[in-house]
What we know:
TATA-Binding Protein, alpha+beta, 7-stranded antiparallel β-sheet, about 30% helix, about 525 residues, single chain, 5-stranded antiparallel β-sheet, 4 domains, 23 strands
Amino acid sequence: MVDEAPLPPLGTVGLLRWAWRQLTSMRTALILLFCLAVAAIPGSVFPQRGTNPLKVNDWLANNPTAGPILDRLGFFDVYSSPWFSAVYLLLFVSLVGCVVPRMGQHWRAMRTPPPPAPRRLLRLSEAREFRSTDDADHVLAEAQRWLRSHRWRVREGTDADGARWLAAEKGYLRETGNLVFHLALLVVLVAVGYGGLFGWKGNVIVREGDGFSDTLTQYDAWGGGRFVDPSALPPFSFTLDKFDVDFERSEAQRGAPRLFAAHVTYRDTPTSPAESITVGVNEPLSVDGAKVFLVGHGYAPHFIVKDSTGAVVFDDSVVFLPQDGNFTSTGVIKVPAADPSFGFSALFLPTAAVDDVRGPHSTFPAADYPAAFMSAWTGDLGLDSGVPQSVYSLDTSRMTQLGLESLLPGDTWTLPDGKGSIELVGYERWASFQIAHDPGKELALAGAVLAILGLMGSLFIRRRRVWVKVWAAEPTGTLVHVAGLSKTEAPGLAPEVADLARAAGEESDDQHPAG
């Protein structure tokens, strides 16, 4: 047995070439596209800071073990995470390296004439043989006229044995559609990247009667691209005049929202005249390149807190966060102005009910029977510790509980030992807005449309070739062979070959058997 010679070393350049060929192969592009889809799944499963930071905070508070780990891995900001960006960039490079060379190959193929007729046309699956009483020139002229009238590219030639032939090809746009589809994917990737670098978005909760100015300090949460200057945000502002919501009361869809609209007054600039508009679901406010979307709503009960001397130390409405579809809402009131400080954790129930299983809860999202269930605390709120606190949570580790009470609108709870009182005055509504500037969305839409058009072209356009070959065979007439070849399994080639044969002078439909 002869030993095989060892392969030469690959070398650095050879290794780089091999890696580039692997990265720019269509198989790798498909794998990366699948990986990108898988990497986007956590963005749909877990709440994202860019769209709902409040839910992110709640998720972290409810999952103290897994939450910090997932947060460090970027699961709550998936589309800005390093691992998602890595897959995104690899897919972009792979598509560029795959598509650009194919564009040059396709351009050369479109300029290349159809190939000559094979020597044995009758071996093709779609082939016909017949004799015509017309001369060869007339047969070829009629066949060429039919082909050109049906938008075939035609080439004429002569074999070494004297046979004359026509070669025609059609369906080049199939590959064009394929390239357009992949180019459209590149356009979408560029649009997403451009929007991520130059776009921004933020979230803010606005109570009825309150306003918002587009400055960084007004946002509850804000995130911008690398090339966004937060100090150069558009100087618009708006006021939430009224929030309307109505719910279905029939048994079939009880509690489903039927009306969901925020009536706002806005200004493009501080000196612009005020304009009124209604912001609804899928009906955002467009102002100065940004869009204001209505994404949520809830209740803000109004409380008045007095200290032991009867002085008012708190008089305001407080945003409570809904916990279920019936708007069972939680919130806290912090009163550092009192001596000692007060803290209240509470449930606000639009339609209050109490049972032994669920305890206090709301049975309907509308405020049919509003009530608040309060827990009062006194002591150190921890506001001077230097550790940031959420306005939606109360640290009771250094506080003493004073008691529990339920309040209806207008009720006052006098705290034990004459420490003060709290009154539930009523409630207001609040609306949550997402304000976003996405400069790449129009380009992404154009890419999506191009992708659909390109995919339709690659799926429905058929690539095929036909040939006509003639021999002058006096005195028996002209011998004619007609055959076709399809690049796909799509039907339709046989009728075209039959029509071409009739145009060339065939009088019967008898097809020569493949042989």
